[in-house]
Specification:
CATH architecture: Roll
CATH topology: SH3 type barrels
Number of strands: 6
Order of helices and strands: EEHEEEHE
CATH class: Mainly Beta
Number of helices: 2
Strand content: 35-45%
Strand order of the largest sheet: 1-6-2-3-4-5
Helix content: 10-25%
Distance between the termini: 22 Å
Largest sheet: 6 strands, antiparallel
Number of domains: 1
Structural class: alpha+beta
Amino acid sequence: MLPLSIGPTNSALMIKKISGKDDQKKLLANMGFVPGEVIKLISQNDGNVIVGIKDGRVAIAEKMARRIMVEEVKHANLR
């Protein structure tokens, strides 16, 4: 497992664990960041991380991305 903030770009990543305070976890969950969800790290710039999740893209702060632990998934269907 590694933090989303240093994950490989344009690869399928499965969310394994989210750390932080309950309100931070709830905010991330409301955006679709939940354990078991497959996402794609699109880019990182200026302290922000752009993530493909479900049918859209979301920008989150790098600090938040460090709380999301992921594993690379082989053979995933990315959008």
